[in-house]
Design a protein that fits this description.
With 112 residues, the chain is mainly beta. It has 1 helix and 6 strands. Helix content is 9%, strand content 39%.
């Protein structure tokens, strides 16, 4: 059993797939959101710079808590150690965004 927990969170946002590592993942206070805290970036050599991870550092560098909509989450894994965070283009979307819909539907009314 690892002494410290790390989570790999994969989610989509604006036509891109984000893969980040965090210290804590929990259900948010806001309905339908997952809270990701303590985003971790790999400590790599200062000589070699990964441009994908650098763009994520710029985007999430000063963020303490990130609230991600539940329907944007693809997968959350508990891992033994962090890998490198990355951001990739979602394939097959052809520039068309899905129409927002609620995954929380009201139960059908009972007929008396």
């Amino acid at each position: 059993m690892p002494s410290r927990r790390r989570y790999k969170v994969i989610f989509h946002n604006q036509g891109k797939i984000y893969e980040i590592f965090a210290k804590s993942v929990s259900q948010g206070e806001l309905f339908g959101f997952v809270v990701v805290e303590g985003i971790v970036f790999g400590e790599r050599s200062q000589v070699v710079v990964d441009p994908g991870e650098e763009s994520l550092k710029n985007e999430f560098g000063g963020v303490r808590r990130c609230m991600i909509p539940l329907h944007a989450i693809i997968r959350i894994d508990e891992v033994d150690k962090e890998g490198s965070s990355r951001m990739t283009a979602a394939k097959g979307d052809a520039g068309v965004a899905p129409f927002p819909s609620s995954i929380y539907n009201k139960p059908p009314e009972k007929k008396s």
